[in-house]
């Protein structure tokens, strides 16, 4: 496969797996991490060449944004969302769509969601590249955000960057202490040797007088396998005055070429170099993962085809055929349940009792132990027994205890069994429900019809 087709191929797999929530295959990707104020958005917009990301105070990226850049010889650049088939030529509309789609899923109170937004940008001015923009790491909730927002975002980021095939793009402002970089810190947790982390330094032009980032860029402070790339993005003033991306790239090039601190590194810094470097890293990474991806896709295809064969022909045209399918599905489900109840199933965790063995344990051990703790003296006192006996004999002599007295006393004692019996029923009910769910998982025939499965 030609190199320029590798990234689009992975993009297609990514879109196919997106509805599943958790992809069944660990696809190669580059995830962008950093604090809210690290300059992530500016880096991404510089790579694309347009203002297209929502901005403002607090968390701007509240859902993962899968950004697919496609190098194509088009007359006019355009964008497409996975959930919207039409082409969008205005990147202001792209920004509004991202905001609206974020609010729709994550709400408009600064909440976050792991459900990704997939955006494709077609342009002759970009390189083939796929980036996953993750919510900025934060420490303090603002407004109506939940108090655990920091933990929620952190968990979401870790879930993605902990995958072995994920390259981590850690964005860090150069005017801060590298040791306190949120992006590098969280990357180090899952990649302690820095083998799959790329460092991006922003805000070099805002560093204090007399300081520079040469030692960081030269890998002398915290070395990374893929090294560091420094960029100079537009300032807030540049954004407010609508400074063009082309002018910003020219200013960035002048900054590095004329700087006494970075001129010797100028050919390996800047947005254009970063985009080419990321493209090269991602293509090499995909190429190395291709044998495993190909094998996994073939296995998935084989399993899906095997499952499809089990479903049989899709003959549901007539009511009689529909009834036959329902009957066959329920019959197969009952057979599977019977097999489980006979102990003919292999539970994934053999260290615990499961299914019928667990039910037997509940009845013969747990319930019996509970009953054995009962004491009849707690329910009936000697005075109670004497009173019942006297009521039963009335005016007659009481040489023998009447059956009526015995039955009355036993009924009161039986009431002691109500609570442990109810607890036993609840436990058995939960165990049976779990057993039914497990049987439904293996009953492919009934799983084919969602409504029928829910009814069962």
UniProtKB/TrEMBL annotation:
Gene3D superfamilies the record matches: Dynamin, middle domain (1.20.120.1240), P-loop containing nucleotide triphosphate hydrolases (3.40.50.300)
PROSITE patterns in the record: G_DYNAMIN_1, G_DYNAMIN_2
Domain (Dynamin-type G) ranges: 24-291
Gene Ontology molecular function: any one: GTPase activity
GO CC annotation, single: microtubule
InterPro entries reported in the protein's UniProt record: Dynamin, Dynamin_GTPase, Dynamin_GTPase_CS, Dynamin_N, Dynamin_stalk, G_DYNAMIN_dom, P-loop_NTPase
Keywords, ordered alphabetically: GTP-binding, Nucleotide-binding
One Pfam short name: Dynamin_M
Entry similarity comment: Belongs to the TRAFAC class dynamin-like GTPase superfamily. Dynamin/Fzo/YdjA family.
Protein name from the UniProt record: Dynamin-type G domain-containing protein
